Amino acid sequence: MTLTRFGLSLLLLIGALLPAYANDIESVRVWPSPNNTRIVFDLGSQPDYSYFTLKNPDRVVIDFAETSLSVDLGRVDNTNAFLKRIRTSTPKNKRATRVVLDLSRSVTPELFAMPPTKPYGHRLVVDLPYSPMQAPQVVVKSSEQSDRDRDIIIAIDAGHGGEDPGSVGPTGTFEKNIVLSIAKKLQAMVDNEPGMRAVMTRTGDYYIAPNRRPELARQHKADLLVSIHADAFTTPQPRGGSVWVLSTGRADSELGRWMERTERHSELLGGAAEVINDAVSERYLAETILGLSMDHSMATSHDLSQKVISEMRKITKMHKTRPQAASLAVLTSPDIPSILVEVGFISNPQEEKNLNWAEHRERLATSMFNATKRYFKAVPPDGTLWASLKNSTRTHKVRSGESLSVLAQRYNVNVSSLKQANNLTSDVVRIGQVLTIP
Ligand SMILES: [Zn+2]
Questions:
Q1: Residues near 172 by Cβ (< 8 Å), separated by ≥ 6?
Q2: Which of 149, 328, 142 is closest to 219 using CA atoms?
């Protein structure tokens, strides 16, 4: 009896000592990227905040009203030379928390609150963008190369990243991790191929705005942009891959309209979708963007997407066996052929399992690589090594056991053009004979 009364008064005492804050900073995450450092504060409820910057040394000071801090800022994982330290400072009043970001140079911070989206709750996002002058190059090689016999440049874009996990599978697999893994495998294959070189829009777990992705491809004078994603749907049934190309009108399928509409992919929608919605702009689009380069890149995208589909069909079920069209931001570059590959539905339990299997991701990367190779072997861009190899005359000295049909197959030409190039009237070739390969 006495003990209970004592316990109760102790509780009341603790209650009086601990003021109830409206909000709490539960954790802090730092996402460094080549052009931006993003700091995310996870909060119990919607943040009430204000901020200002200070110079000498450069700082961003953020005041959270009615907020307690239950994370040790000294333990926040931060491998970033630009953001030197995250610490607290004396708040405006006892019920506020002041957080200071010590920086190595001045920036114009962008702060915005984000509502809960799976897997995160309420957040305050602080972006510290670097000016383009200060931005480290993703890959620095393109300018060193002469224009003759240059590499074919493939820009590989792993969707989402950092704070944006993309779609989430039934057992919690993040699309951003799956697609980065596939992108890195594809990068290794491309870099291993003489005459081809890969550039990555992102190489780690950080966020890049959708519009920025084709921009990066353009900066590197890419011949192709391949954006890699994994689908999700509200029901677990849909499965299979699909390949998307730019549409200058509204999406031409139910899935395409859903992709444009759905929240998960909404970040892919950029300026183009808005432009297309506007009748006046549509005329501008038709007259300006749909020039020769647009025709060329759209034709290329379409042709290439068919090749990707034919390669992917060998290793995975396809949700759509024809290229799909939608107006997605990552596909809006009029001058660079661009495709978006959805490697499967991460919302389908079996496909989630497959995508978590390294061998399957390797196969998906291989199918994209083979399709790209097939395409550029047939139509290498001007000035590339592949173009000059294609134009130079090839010869072959016939060895024992080789026939015209064997050689035709090896060089990927047909027998009749082989005969024509060598003025042959019959299918007979002799050992040691030198043939011109068309
Ligand atoms: Zn995606």
A1: 119
A2: 142
- Alpha-carbon gap, residue 416 to 137, rounded angstroms: 49
Query: What pTM was estimated for this model as a whole?
Result: 0.62
- 192-212 tens-digit pLDDT: 999 999 999 999 998 887 778
Cα(378)–Cα(368) distance, integer angstroms: 16
pLDDT at 35: 74
Q: d(Cα 192, Cα 415) in Å, to the nearest integer? A: 31
For ligand 1, the distance from its centroid to the CA atom of residue 13, given in whole angstroms, is 51
Closest CA to 48 of 92, 85, 9: 92
**Sign of the alpha-carbon dihedral angle for 194, 199, 204, 210:** negative
pLDDT given for residue 327 in this prediction: 61
Distance (Å) from CA 187 to ligand 1 centroid = 19
The domains of the chain, with CATH numbers, are: 19-129 (2.60.40.3500), 148-378 (3.40.630.40), 393-437 (3.10.350.10)
Report the candidate in 39, 203, 36 with the shortest Cα–Cα distance to residue 129.
Answer: 36
Give the distance (Å) from ligand 1 centre to CA of residue 166: 5
Q: Which two tokens stand for residue 133?
A: 């002058």
Give 279's Cβ-side CA count (13 Å radius): 0
Q: Which residues of 65-100 are buried (b: 16+ CB within 10 A; e: fewer)?
A: bbbbbeeeeeebebebebbeebeeeebeeeebbbbb
Provide the 3-class DSSP secondary structure of residue 226.
strand
| Cα atoms in the Cβ-side hemisphere of radius 13 Å centred on 385 | 11
**What is the spatial distance between Cα 257 and Cα 249, in angstroms, rounded to a whole number?**
11
* Long-range CB contacts for residues 251-256, cutoff 8 Å, separation at least 24: 251/324, 251/325, 251/326, 251/327, 252/324, 252/325, 253/320, 253/324, 253/325, 255/319, 255/320, 255/324, 256/324, 256/325, 256/326
Residue 410 CA, ligand 1 centroid: distance in Å: 39
pLDDT per residue as tens digits for the range 277-303: 333 333 333 333 334 445 566 777 888
